[in-house]
Write a structure and sequence with these properties.
This protein is of the alpha/beta class. It has a single domain (about 45-164), classed as Barwin-like endoglucanases. Helices cover about 20% and strands about 25% of the residues. The chain has helices spanning about 10-25, 45, 135-140, 155-164; strands at about 60-70, 90, 100-105, 110-120, 125-130, 145-155. A six-stranded mixed barrel has the order 1-5-2-4-3-6. The radius of gyration is 19 Å and the shape is globular. The model is unreliable at about 1-5 and about 25-50 (pLDDT under 50).
Length: about 160
Amino acid sequence: MKHEKHFFSLSFVAILITIALSTTQAGTPTSGISTKINPQYNSTEAVLPPVAVSSKSLFPVTEGKASFYANQFHGRKTANGETFNMDNLTAAHPSLPFGTRVRVTNLRNGKDVIVRINDRGPFVKGRIIDLSISAAKEIGLIKTGTARVKLEALSASQLASIAG
């Protein structure tokens, strides 16, 4: 049957069905987390619930070099599917789950900002996080372009206390 084309193999369809069933049984990754919305985030971000890490986090406090990205990526899709807005307090991290809130502290001046992970990166060796330009401004990163920072993934209780 030359005119018939098979776009999906049987194994691919089986995998899709398995994923769909496991999602409906287990719920969403953030089921059961109740948090107050931080007013510093805009309404687009407020719709997406934060991912909380446990107090015994698998993600330890980390130090390394941060950079920022802005104009050339503004309006493009991020790895989690949303449109990148350089004015939001967001960041790219290579492995933290999307939606995780992270406190980023500039070790040179002590300024910090809480960002939401919505993208993957950075893709430059030696860097641990890429901040939106808005987040970079909050911690004084614009002039230097990069800085040593401390990253701390926030737990649900920490997010609740910040939101007030």
